[in-house]
Write a structure and sequence with these properties.
CATH superfamily: P-loop containing nucleotide triphosphate hydrolases
CATH architecture: 3-Layer(aba) Sandwich
Shape: globular
Number of helices: 15
CATH class: Alpha Beta
Bound molecules: adenosine-5'-diphosphate, magnesium ion
Radius of gyration: 19 Å
Oligomer: single chain
Strand content: 5-15%
Amino acid sequence: MTEPQASPPHDPDAVPVSEVAAEDVSRETSGDDDQAVDTQGDVSRETEFDTPIAREAAQAVHVLNVRQESWPAPPATRVLTVANQKGGVGKTTTAVNLAAALALHGLRVLVIDLDPQGNASTALGVEHTVGRPSIYDVLLGGQAIADVATPVDFTPNLLCVPATLDLAGADIELTSQVAREYRLQRALNTFLDHDGSFDYIFIDCPPSLGLLTLNALVAGREMLIPIQCEYYALEGLAQLLNTVELVKSHLNPALTVTTVLLTMYDSRTRLADQVADEVRAHFGELVLNPVIPRNVRVSEAPGFGQTVMTYDAGSRGAIGYLQAAHEIAERGAASSAGASEQPGGTQS
Ligand SMILES: Nc1ncnc2c1ncn2[C@@H]1O[C@H](COP(=O)(O)OP(=O)(O)O)[C@@H](O)[C@H]1O
Ligand SMILES: [Mg+2]
């Protein structure tokens, strides 16, 4: 595997979202709702709030906190491509929940769904039936991102460019197109030239290294790699980083791996710790300090067309994503990485 890229400066004094949150997502606490008592003997949050009223009260407090606090904006729009060619590692969950957390804290965010499954669109409650204007029309119909971006209903700060099943054939359809790797980059640069108000753009990639993911890597400035704390987690990472290097040297010199997030962490397994340690040893400071616990609330949320941030703001999963998003915002505000040139400067 290649060495990690230079990371943006990290503020060691960055405070956690809240004291409560910090305790709840500590790596010692239990990983899932299913487990009432963790190995340290602490009662889990879900047991603590085991009556509906207590849970609702706790949720209300969290939601209130979420809406009151403003997080710092980066100096320029940060475009993060969320990629890992492995399926089911938490790409979509990460993209939508980080986006929601940032948007709920006053930042302007756009999520671009680049997976024909349209899971990000589903989780954000954005309609994505076949034929509706979507990212397909941007990539293959020359439509503007601004024309297909749809506001989500829980905050005016968050928009989503949906993906429909029309995108399923796009990998093949793109093959014969001129500048096929640059389609998304061009559309995104046009969008950003017209509207500089966005703080964060997340591109949710499909589980492959085909032309769709390639478009995302060429369009992004930063790459966010979610890594699932499971046995085969590191398998395929070398290939992914190799692809990033190829894109960097041939198509998008601006691309940098800036963020790695450990997802679906289960404190009951020693394996999760081993994977986490290995990832931290390899990627160093690029790995966000908060880890996302495995939590049933996270997996339930999309079934209700929601992110876990809105579905159960007091759950461990929501708090994990809240803390991760907070760290991203703090790093982004402290870094000049976001102020770098738009990709495309060297393109002929
Ligand atoms: N922290 C978590 N705890 C429990 N389930 C999760 C968590 N993160 C993701 N999931 C579930 O795992 C599955 C795969 O996640 P997803 O984000 O769709 O991965 P990808 O986009 O990489 O394919 C989904 O069903 C999702 O709801
Ligand atoms: Mg996905």
